């Protein structure tokens, strides 16, 4: 297909998008242009696994640690950090799905693997009534690993289709965001009812259903089969990718914001387990029911959506430093709502606990989204051409590592302040320390660039991207790749001639053969 034909196809897609602004319209268009199995995969991962699954799993896991395992809130905080560990190593999953095809397929086997791991682990957890703490941690961690693998795999598909069908790129992001938001609202709405009627283990067992949908998406996904793949070159490609990411991290324009992101997240101490135990305590706390806990979180998810809209409408064009500064300040101030509730000042001024809890969670979720979105934009600006996907996954891993440390530091603080299952006299101190700790990252705000969110942050030399498809000419055996390998004193991209890394793929439907680059771009979706 020549350039004129490609432009005609793009124009036709843009014209078609004009009359399909409603979800049903662009869902049908995406199914027609990209195949319905791709849409099913996005809905299964973002809507079912991450949306409904994370919502139901978050509420059910809180009750599981409290009522079934009967651990202290500090221990529950620590265990939940272990469960989230697979998200810290997302670049590994990304490299595997990009570099190592299985039985000739690069996406389908990883969907199948993620589905099997997630479903089997949750069924094990729900069917064994006297499961120990360590087996329970392993089961929840396995389910988290399955979700992380599915997330990375579907992000790779979204990135690939965004490149090959550029007029549909915005629709693809809308599909991901819409599926996740609707799934979260649905999940939080039914989470309390499920825990109340089935117990926390029964609700966790239902998480095997989203994993089964991921498995089904892997079975039905339409994917071209890779042929003539040389597995002996896998280690070399892994080494090249790691070397490229290491060279990029040596740039001051990259490592300085990374340090700020990690520190700002790790110092925002997470004491959610302590608050959850207090919320559900009928003697000292408000004694909220399972149904009301689900309602609080579902309304809070609406606050998160309002935060997205507010950022999109008013804040996306402001400089990074200004937005991040006010994000940290507002986060600290919003945390004072927890302090008011824990000290019961709200009841003294005539505001019932159930009303104030809804307000508190909604405001906190909205401010949290306003704080999170600029960091996502900053990460997208730090990704050099050629390794955008894998490096973005690395940046997300840095953020996830900061969140993990935040949970562990918060658990340690709850332990030192003797906040237990029944003792909450020092919980207000933990809340106050958490709120003040959110202001500490402001001292490192100088590490963040002063530019606005629409500016390029990387050096001009690093932005040079010589794609293999551009360098490929009439049967030549070598191609120019922009490989980010530098010495200790430089972060400039070096153009290195390497052997042709294209591989043959065979379309199962047409039998045609196409040459594509072996390393595909991968795009992380936020989590």
From TrEMBL:
The record's listing under SUPFAM superfamilies reads: MFS general substrate transporter
Q: Where on the tree of life does the source sit, at the highest rank?
A: Eukaryota
The entry's localization annotation reads: Membrane
- Transmembrane intervals: 38-65, 85-103, 110-127, 133-154, 175-196, 202-221, 259-280, 292-311, 323-342, 391-415
Q: Which InterPro entries match?
A: BT1, FBT, MFS_trans_sf
Could you tell me which Pfam families the record lists for this protein?
A: BT1
* Keywords noted in UniProt: Membrane, Transmembrane, Transmembrane helix, Transport
Membrane topology, as annotated: Multi-pass membrane protein
* Record's GO cellular component terms: membrane
Family named by the database record: Belongs to the major facilitator superfamily. Folate-biopterin transporter (TC 2.A.71) family.
- The identity of this protein, by name, is Major facilitator superfamily (MFS) profile domain-containing protein
